[in-house]
Amino acid sequence: MSPTGRAVKRAMDMVLAGTALAAGWPFLAALAILIRIDSPGPVLFRQERAGRGMRPFTVYKFRTMRADADPYDVSPMGREDARLTRLGRWLREMTLDELPQLWNVLKGDMSIVGPRPLYMSQACQFNERQRRRLEVRPGLTGLAQFLGRGEIPHEQKLELDVQYVERWGLWLDLKIILGSVRLLLPNERVYQKWT
Fold first, then answer.
1. Can you name the residues that pair with 113 across neighbouring β-strands?
2. Burial label, 13 (beta-carbon count in 10 A; 0-12, 13-18, 19+)
3. Residue 17 neighbours by CB under 8 Å, 6+ apart
4. Cα–chain center distance at 128
5. CA 103 – CA 190 distance, rounded (Å)
6. Is 101 in contact with 21 (CB distance < 8 Å)?
């Protein structure tokens, strides 16, 4: 990605994330209240992830699991997972748990579109080709989410992430953003089918 491309992408991120947070804060506040009512524990889930250039950062999500759940355990593979709270199931299936990452976008840790941020331990295991996904900021949504999300095996997701880096353009970002709107409909594709 050229310096000009990075600047344009960053400007688009700032506009989209800033607008979404400014317009959506009452909804976000309502979700935060509901999370506190639904189960004991913090509203936000924080976790260290690998950012651009392998730089660690703290990712924010609305908490969807019980407060005593291991934050680095395997992601829930279905809505019956006992670690999920009642509200957490709905937040995950509507992809609303990811909304606090708009703050990560404003901070510059993330982009609206890019490879999803993975654990530092996962990033340390990348081969040379897979490390190319670290050339861009991780995203709220990406090519793998657009094409199948939890239904795609992990290795295939990593390859799609590299293809995104290689093919990047504003039109591709816009296509992924518009295509990702369907992820806001309740669906089971959010759950990992592969470990």
1. 141
2. buried
3. 102, 103, 105, 106, 112
4. 23
5. 22
6. no
Check residue 189 and give its pLDDT: 54
Dist. CA 4–CA 28, nearest whole Å: 33
Helix (H/G/I), strand (E/B), else coil: 164: helix
Question: 27: closest CA among 91, 80, 112?
Answer: 91
Query: Could you identify the residue written with the tokens 């959010």?
Result: 190
3-state class of 175 per DSSP? helix
DSSP string covering 91-147, please?
HHHTTGGGTTHHHHHHHTS-EEESPPP--HHHHTT--TTGGGGGGS--EEE-HHHHH
Nearest to 97 by CA among 147, 45, 58: 45
pTM of the model: 0.87
User: For residue 85, what are its two tokens?
Assistant: 């709270």
Q: What is the mean pLDDT of the chain?
A: 90
CA torsion angle 44 73 128 145 (round to 10): -60
Give the residue with greater pLDDT, 51 vs 94: 51
